[in-house]
Design brief:
The protein is α+β, with helices and mostly antiparallel strands. Helices cover about 30% and strands about 15% of the residues. It contains three helices and four strands; from the N terminus they run αβββαβα. It has a four-stranded mixed sheet. Strand 2 and strand 3 form a beta hairpin. It is globular and about 30 Å long.
Length: about 120
């Protein structure tokens, strides 16, 4: 399942490989359909619990980055591969923002431990 998703998303044309944006700080509403995701990007809900969860729109190109794959593995360990809806990543929002910023700056990290 994970390989299929990565294969599909890797075929998407992306103009800015490290472009991302945060969309609000309110908890996500799973019943609300969103059409604000640009082509070549996907939504991710990040946070350790419902009260601290924030929604990000990230480039599909991030799926090629080892540190982002580590985040996906954490998500699979926490929620399994059969998640419904938006991908959820169980990590502190501030740490996720550091990951995105370091990738935007072109820094290569092999582990999340380097950013914590």
């Amino acid at each position: 399942m994970k390989k299929l998703m990565m294969r599909r998303l890797s075929r998407v044309r992306v103009t800015h490989s490290t472009q991302y944006s945060m969309l609000g700080s309110e908890p996500p509403d799973p019943t609300k359909q969103r059409s604000d995701v640009p082509h070549g990007h996907f939504p991710v809900c990040v946070g350790m619990d419902q009260t601290s969860t924030r929604r990000f729109i990230v480039s599909a190109e991030l799926l090629r980055q080892p540190i982002f794959v580590e985040l996906l593995n954490r998500s699979a360990q926490e929620y399994g591969f059969e998640q419904k809806g938006v991908l959820r990543i169980p990590i502190n929002v501030v740490v996720f923002e550091r990951v995105l910023e370091s990738l935007r700056q072109g820094q290569q990290h092999s582990s999340l431990d380097e950013l914590v």
